[in-house]
Design a protein that fits this description.
Blueprint (H helix, E strand, L loop, with lengths): L1 H17 L5 E6 L6 E10 L2 E9 L25 E9 L2 E9 L4 E11 L2 E7 L6 E8 L2
Antiparallel strand pairs: 1-2, 1-8, 2-3, 3-4, 4-5, 5-6, 6-7, 7-8
Length: about 140
């Protein structure tokens, strides 16, 4: 009986710890409609955080290209596109990286921070973080 209780306790602690991570799948909502328009996967590579679009909910946009992007992302499919690159952990947030807005093709400095286990704050900015925009992603199920 003690083994079962101990195992259940370990699983619960493990799930609780894992839910406190930024890594995983997140729903991104359209600012205008409030509807989920894409699913983003945040992952870790070489100690840094990255994210890519893994699902587009609008069937008409599934094959959309990043027409307004410059450089290597110009005319690449938005589905599968890396939009967060090179964020490093700094206390309770991840910063020092960049975020790409596929709708405008613009790249911004950014930081992300876990607000709750199911809510991720993303702040994109130019220059100083006071001059920017904040979005919130909700954890996908």
């Amino acid at each position: 009986m003690k083994k079962i209780i101990f195992t259940v306790l370990l699983i619960t602690i493990n799930l609780s710890i894992n839910s406190q991570e930024i890594f995983g799948k997140w729903n991104s909502k359209n600012d205008e409609t409030g509807q989920v328009d894409s699913v983003i996967e945040v992952y870790k590579k070489d100690g840094k955080a990255f994210a890519k679009i893994i699902e587009i909910t609008n069937p008409e946009r599934k094959n959309a290209l990043c027409e307004l992007c410059n450089g290597k992302n110009k005319d690449k499919p938005i589905l599968g596109l890396n939009i967060l690159t090179g964020l490093e952990k700094d206390d309770d947030e991840w910063s020092g990286g960049k975020i790409l807005d596929p709708r405008s093709g613009k790249i911004y400095k950014c930081y992300i921070k876990l607000e709750t286990s199911n809510k991720l704050k993303i702040r994109g900015y130019m220059g100083f973080s006071l001059l920017g925009k904040t979005a919130y992603w909700e954890r996908a199920e």
